[in-house]
Amino acid sequence: MRKLAITQNITLDGSIEMLGDWFDPTDQDPQLLEATRRQSERADAMLLGRQTFEDFRGYWPRQTDDQTGITDELNQIQKYVVSSTLTDPQWRNSTVLTGDWIAQVRALKGQEGRDIVVTGSITLTHALIVSGLVDEYRLFVYPAIQGRGRRLFPDGYEMPRLHLVEARGFQNGVCLLRYTN
C-alpha cells in the first residue's frame, strides 16, 4: 500500500498560502535541496488540485535553465489533478480525476508503488485531511511570519497527537519536520 504524504512549505505562523515573498522555489540552500530530492525519490506520483496544477504547468515546463532539477522531476512524475472542470491536462504524465475522486485516491493508495505526494492545493489538502487519507506530513517551515493566509489544517479540525519522524534544520533557517499519524 502506498503512502499519501502532504509536503508543504509553511510559514512559522502556520500559513501555507503564499501571499507574500517568503518562498522562492529557485532559491534553495544546497542541503535543503538535497533533502527535497530525497523526499522526491520516495514518490512516483503527485496529487494536485486544479489551481496548483495550472500554476505548476504554467511555470515548471517553461524553465530552460533549472539548476535545481525540479523541472525534470515534475515533467517525469505521474501527476493526478483533481478537477470538475479540467478535461485536457496539457502536461505529459498527467491524469484528471473527476467524480468520486476520494475513492480514486483510495484506489491509487492501494496500488503498488512509492509515495503519492500532495503539495500546495489547499482545498484538496483540507479534504484529504478530513477524509483520513493522509499518512504523513512533511513540512518545510520557513522562518517567516505572514500574519494571514489559509492554514495547513481546516479551521476547527482536531487531530490526535502526531508522531515526529524527523526534525532537521538548514543554514537558511528552514526546518524540515516530518510527522505521521
From TrEMBL:
One Pfam family of this chain: RibD_C
Q: What is this protein called?
A: Dihydrofolate reductase
Q: Name one GO biological process term.
A: riboflavin biosynthetic process
The record's Gene3D superfamilies line, in alphabetical order, gives: Dihydrofolate Reductase, subunit A
Instruction: Give the signal peptide as a residue range, or say none if absent.
Output: none
Question: Which residue numbers delimit the Bacterial bifunctional deaminase-reductase C-terminal domain?
Answer: 3-176
Question: Which InterPro entries has this protein been placed in?
Answer: DHFR-like_dom_sf, RibDG_C, Riboflavin_Biosynth_HTPR
Source domain of life is: Bacteria
Offer an example of a GO molecular function term for this protein. 5-amino-6-(5-phosphoribosylamino)uracil reductase activity
Recall the taxonomic lineage recorded for the source organism: Bacteria, Bacillati, Actinomycetota, Actinomycetes, Mycobacteriales
